[in-house]
Design a protein that fits this description.
Layout (H helix, E strand, L loop, with lengths): L1 H6 L8 H51 L10 E8 L2 E5 L10 E6 L5 E4 L2 E2 L2 E5 L4 E3 L2 E4 L2 E7 L2 E7 L1
Antiparallel strand pairs: 1-2, 1-6, 2-3, 4-5, 4-9, 6-7, 7-8, 9-10
Length: 159
């Protein structure tokens, strides 16, 4: 009865329908997971920007308290923080401009916005007492800001 063994073959591998079901399940899982992945990436970039901004602010405040330019008065700036061209910089101010020597800098995460009162915050100054100035006026004891990318945002303040 060798011919019975030839006619009855044992199946090995996957059938086409089983393969299509597996591919459909994988496709469905990918569609569900992709939006979460994007928000995770955005959240990581916002956290990176928050850390970078905190580091830059600490550097600027330390520079301002050292007062290398010997600034006098509450409205005279001793250090400035500037965000331009994807780089966050701490600089020594030159007059009312933030264009002096670069003391510290870091690469800003792409697409993350730094806002204050829904307006882009590109520069702020610190006087020799460590107080924050904006447009040559004292902001107060703190500077509130928002970091945004996509649906992810972070509200913070420097004191």
């Amino acid at each position: 009865m060798w011919w019975v063994e030839v006619l009855v073959k044992k199946q090995s591998g996957l059938s086409l329908i089983e393969l299509m079901i597996v591919i459909t399940i994988i496709g469905f899982l990918v569609l569900v997971v992709v939006p979460f992945t994007q928000s995770w990436i955005y959240e990581a970039q916002v956290n990176n920007a928050r850390s970078l901004l905190a580091n830059g602010y600490s550097q600027a405040k330390a520079l301002a308290l050292r007062n290398p330019q010997n600034s006098q008065g509450d409205l005279a700036s001793s250090a400035c923080v500037k965000l331009a061209d994807g780089v966050l910089q701490v600089r020594e101010p030159e007059g009312s401009l933030c264009s002096g020597n670069i003391v510290w800098q870091g690469d800003w995460p792409e697409g993350v916005s730094l806002l204050r009162s829904n307006n882009r915050l590109t520069v702020f100054f610190i006087n020799n007492r460590g107080l924050i100035l904006k447009n040559d006026q004292q902001v107060g004891d703190n500077l509130t800001f928002t970091l945004n990318k996509g649906a992810v945002s972070y509200n913070g303040a420097f004191y």
